[in-house]
Design a protein that fits this description.
- It is built from 1 helix and 30 strands.
- It is an all-beta fold.
- The chain has a domain of 148 residues: Thrombin, subunit H (Beta Barrel), CATH 2.40.10.500.
- It has a 5-stranded antiparallel beta sheet with strand order 1-7-6-5-4, covered by helices on one side. A 5-stranded antiparallel beta sheet has the order 2-3-30-29-28.
- β8 and β9 form a beta hairpin.
- The longest helix has 9 residues.
- The N terminus is likely disordered.
Length: 321
């Protein structure tokens, strides 16, 4: 395991804080070891923070109280993409380099691999989410999706309708699973019993649906990389709504909905994390303190929204003051 340098810890301890008083939030940055290229980040209810160190083939852990980091090697050839915290409290990783789902125990740091079935081609594993039955579902950008049952260890894989593109994936409060297809320009709902995925086309053509998230009502929010839209699909009436960030030529990468149903996106044109209130349709923007932050995913817990600045080797959190 690699430790962050004392200089990095000291910088983190200083907080590198930027107060955004108008929105009653604070933005803090935490450096991680150079060359990590943190791709996705996940925070547990107790404040533990995990991130995928994609270029070093490791899973990172941050103690936000001290700023100290540690890196856990995942195996030869590892290239981790997504990370989430599972119902068991462990970190679950989609590792494109290993073509496997990886579990890292939160206490022991033990690494367990769930390789995709023998004969499965390279899937370019992307992101994961747990359904209401405790089964993990994952996407593979090469044109696949599948599941892992932690109880028995069964791993399944299906070719995606529409071929290449499955990217972001998320669960609704009722446990349903939806994913977004970036190259396929659609979202899809997975029948968690049969495994069948049904495509759902957004109104905007060639929009580049990249990531998805559900609000408390089960409405599906979609970040559209090519159109720049933040869109919302209501499964009840099958209607769509589109919202455009107040930025010239926006590039909307990721989306996350917090426990207050505020919608967070990462917007690359303005190099910012943005927050959208669906009730007032007001946008708040929190630009990075440096150029080219490249925040690829957001996750959070009550009062905190986290991202990873992959180009700057640091994590960012926007928190309530």
């Amino acid at each position: 395991m690699r430790q962050a340098t004392m200089k990095q810890i000291a910088i983190a301890a200083l907080g590198l804080s930027i107060a955004i008083s108008a929105s009653a939030v604070e933005v803090r940055y935490y450096p991680v070891p150079k060359g990590s290229h943190p791709h996705d980040v996940a925070v547990a209810a107790d404040g533990s923070v995990w991130y995928t160190a994609q270029r070093s083939g490791e899973l990172g852990f941050l103690d936000q109280k001290t700023g100290k980091t540690e890196h856990i090697p995942l195996g030869k050839g590892s290239s981790p993409h997504g990370v989430i915290v599972g119902p068991d409290g462990a970190a679950w990783v989609t590792d494109s380099g290993l073509n496997a789902i990886v579990r890292v125990d939160a206490k022991t740091r033990a690494v367990t691999l769930f390789p995709l079935p023998k004969g499965t081609p390279y899937t370019n594993l992307n992101t994961a989410a747990f359904d209401g039955n405790g089964v993990l579902w994952y996407t593979g950008q090469a044109g696949y999706y599948g599941s892992v049952n932690p109880k028995g260890g069964e791993v399944r894989v299906w070719p995606a309708p529409g071929g290449r593109g499955p990217y972001g994936i998320a669960a609704t409060p009722s446990g349903d699973i939806y994913y977004a297809s970036l190259a396929g320009n659609h979202i899809a709902k997975i029948d968690i019993t049969s495994g069948k995925a049904t495509m759902i086309a957004p109104p905007t053509k060639n929009q580049g649906a990249r990531r998805v998230w559900s609000d408390s009502k089960g409405q599906i929010w979609v970040s559209e990389w090519l159109s720049g839209n933040l869109s919302m699909y209501n499964p009840v009436d099958q209607q769509w709504k589109m919202f455009k960030p107040p930025v010239d030529n926006p590039q909307t990468y990721s989306v996350y909905v917090d426990d207050k149903d505020l919608v967070w996106i990462t917007e690359w044109t303005s190099n910012a994390i943005m927050r959208f209130d669906p009730r007032t349709q007001k946008w708040d923007s929190y630009p990075s303190s440096v150029r080219s932050a490249a925040v690829r995913q957001m996750l959070g817990r009550t009062g905190e929204a986290w991202g990873a600045e992959s180009s700057n080797d640091r994590l960012v959190v926007v928190s309530e003051k």
